[in-house]
Amino acid sequence: MPKSVLTPQAEDFPRWYQDVVAKAELADNGPVRGTMVIRPYGYSIWERMQADMDRRIKEAGARNAYFPLFIPESYLTREAEHVEGFSPELAVVTHAGGKELEEPVIVRPTSETVIGEFMAKWTQSYRDLPLLLNQWANVVRWELRPRIFLRTSEFLWQEGHTAHATEEGARRYAKRIHEDVYAAFMRDLLAMPVVLGRKTARERFAGATNTLALEAMMRDGKALQMGTSHELGQNFARAFDISYLSEHGRQELCWTTSWGSSTRMIGGLIMCHGDDFGLRVPPRLAPVQALVMVVKAGEGVEAAARQVVSDLLARGVRAELDARVDTPFGRRAVDAELKGIPVRVEVGPRDLAEGAVTVVRRIAGGKTSVPLGGVADVVAGSLDDDHEALYAAALAHRDARTTTVATIDEAAEATRTGWALMPWASLGPEGEASLAETGVTVRCLTLPDGSVPQAEDDPDVIAVIGRAY
Amino acid sequence: MPKSVLTPQAEDFPRWYQDVVAKAELADNGPVRGTMVIRPYGYSIWERMQADMDRRIKEAGARNAYFPLFIPESYLTREAEHVEGFSPELAVVTHAGGKELEEPVIVRPTSETVIGEFMAKWTQSYRDLPLLLNQWANVVRWELRPRIFLRTSEFLWQEGHTAHATEEGARRYAKRIHEDVYAAFMRDLLAMPVVLGRKTARERFAGATNTLALEAMMRDGKALQMGTSHELGQNFARAFDISYLSEHGRQELCWTTSWGSSTRMIGGLIMCHGDDFGLRVPPRLAPVQALVMVVKAGEGVEAAARQVVSDLLARGVRAELDARVDTPFGRRAVDAELKGIPVRVEVGPRDLAEGAVTVVRRIAGGKTSVPLGGVADVVAGSLDDDHEALYAAALAHRDARTTTVATIDEAAEATRTGWALMPWASLGPEGEASLAETGVTVRCLTLPDGSVPQAEDDPDVIAVIGRAY
Ligand SMILES: [Zn+2]
Ligand SMILES: [Zn+2]
């Protein structure tokens, strides 16, 4: 393998992360502090995430809509006399149309309030339920310590909001999004093992009666929350008067849910699968699964490479040609490593003279000489294996860095390098509060078989404890 | 046909438009003046537009990226001492992070300036060219007289920006977007005839050396600009220092293009194809092509309707079941008309007893009894015809409302109800200026065979003159 151009993970993980983001051409800092430019390669990964997630959300019955970027100040701040009194995460538009606005306008930090208002209009009768809405949009939360993809002042996300006639209906739907949409997406597309659990009261979303979360371990042993799905009880419906006329002619309050996932997942992907040579993109997600490289110019070399691309495309592999022979081959190979393209097929005059090409695998590692006619089969097989291999490696890493503990001190110790598992009955809210003082949190509560507890006080409940991004 | 619930077009066209937008559940006004909520049905139309346009843009070689919502004030306003001095279309964030910003931030009215800055970074060598970028995003231009989809303070759009080594390369690409992407999209997906032409110097985009436009006629005889593609010469490259090192080792300025289309096209779609019963959605665009309706409950009726849906899906028709028998059938039928769903298949107990269903066509009009086994063929055939019929009707309407004229007075008269065609050599910039005083503009310059003139002074050039949205 070529020498890495990145800071090694073991030396300085945050620096390694920054290096990958820059050198794999994923993103760049925008001119306004805390904002990001998602570069074409990074955006092509996001587009594939979005398309797959969107399909799953639609299969769960939700429909997309679009709500405005601007929210009246009065929706978010009841008392502030001057804009300095607003929550620091809010960006406030005070001037537009060439003059000062009578009422300042907030750039949405979420569309919750506007969506709530319209859900109230749209749920008139039991026939309108369930109302299942989703939105893909940019949102703004001013960040003082920004970090690309993980914490940016502007990010892209989807937020779902649903209204149901019964508590049971809302509960089932929040669970469906948690498991059938988010967990399945992370496992099957991102090749990321996630722990499914519920949040403790301390970590729960304000206004939620239950927050379901998905937590993934990064290469440095820290946790990243990859998505959440909230049961909101009737709290949200009461605040926005989301009610309906029942079949029995009574006006009833709805039960609602909300759920979201964002460009943060790209950060999770990088930190879960990346290594000292760059990103490693799971093959089902990869915009380019196989890069067919002309090593150097020569009689029939480019034609052979084109033929390989055709064979791969015909086999359903997303293949792309790299015939930029005026750029040194080594630089192009390093670039493909950095970008984490799962397979490189190197086509050069010497190999070709023997009717062969070289297949280089980014994920499993290794180079093999493959006869021209067999390339498509070898590559397609590698991609299948690579998905499993990446998932298994991430799981093994998580297991190796996870310790079952009995005391708070042991938990504090274990979370220096990974996660601690401790019975929630032993830890409890007080132990949780004491760990929180050192930045260690209960990521979620789960059951020994990996399922989600119905309630906190089930005696089998295990707290997954760690430091988090 | 059921009685219309809309203001008739002939009575009050703007009112008709508002009625359709509201009653077909396309969109609603947002809480901040000038903003809009795109409702699920309206958004499903936009999503299909976006997916098809995106595919065509990618086929033309451009790659998507994402640039920040916020732009430093200094990028857009060099002199303004206070934010009141900014252009009235700009929305200005003055507070964020809980305090007043040192430098106000503009909510992007376009991403041109930021994209320009990054294009300058990314075009180092001739190997980086052409650089073909596109972005899908929301933009904000404060509107004092907003109108949903047509003029809103926030709208969704795509903006493309490309850099080329030669003038010829830039020109060819602007033309490719104009014809192979925009015109083909409008003709083949939206079933809208558009006139392709170049703008006069007066109507040209500031900074462009040539603006290519697509103009469509609405049902009231007015014009709507559906998209533009600009050649920017080296003006933009000079302003942002977008240059590259040539093969000969010289630093050269690039030649750039930009091009855009937006949610405005939804307004165009409504006003081009809509009638007194609502929207008519071209079948290739329609999210639901055939709505299979259970007329009323009855032995085996719903099962039969489900079977029809399956048959249609198997035939590649986007079909949906409407089994909401607790809502009056008449209301559901009116709703389907309003939404412009191309075909309704009505499944009722009486017809079913004779092994038949009723196929109702929204675009061609008419009801037919069709034997159960033949529904899929009849519907699929109707959809093919409907695309052509819609296109032909729009073209016939445009032709009927277009008058060839010889004088400015005749042009003024003709543009009360439609378009005037007049030799540009006779009209000239002075005639253009005089018409502009009464709100009549040269929409574009075109040639008798429908092609785009290379230059204004070609003696065959025809001015397409009209009132515009
Ligand atoms: Zn002021
Ligand atoms: Zn202030």
TrEMBL record, chains A, B:
One of its GO terms (molecular function) is proline-tRNA ligase activity. GO terms for cellular component: aminoacyl-tRNA synthetase multienzyme complex; cytoplasm. It catalyses: tRNA(Pro) + L-proline + ATP = L-prolyl-tRNA(Pro) + AMP + diphosphate. Its main location: cytoplasm. Its EC number is 6.1.1.15. CDD domains: ProRS_core_arch_euk. Transmembrane segments: none annotated. GO terms for biological process: prolyl-tRNA aminoacylation. InterPro entries: aa-tRNA-synt_IIb, aa-tRNA-synth_II, aa-tRNA-synth_II/BPL/LPL, Anticodon-bd, Anticodon-bd_dom_sf, Pro-tRNA-ligase_IIa, Pro-tRNA-ligase_IIa_arc-type, Pro-tRNA_ligase_II_C. Residues 33-282 form the Aminoacyl-transfer RNA synthetases class-II family profile domain. Keywords: Aminoacyl-tRNA synthetase, ATP-binding, Cytoplasm, Ligase, Nucleotide-binding, Protein biosynthesis. SUPFAM superfamilies: Class II aaRS ABD-related, Class II aaRS and biotin synthetases. It is found in: Cytoplasm. Consists of three domains: the N-terminal catalytic domain, the anticodon-binding domain and the C-terminal extension. Homodimer. Catalyzes the attachment of proline to tRNA(Pro) in a two-step reaction: proline is first activated by ATP to form Pro-AMP and then transferred to the acceptor end of tRNA(Pro). Belongs to the class-II aminoacyl-tRNA synthetase family. ProS type 3 subfamily. NCBIfam families: proS_fam_I. HAMAP family: Pro_tRNA_synth_type3 (MF_01571). This is Proline--tRNA ligase.
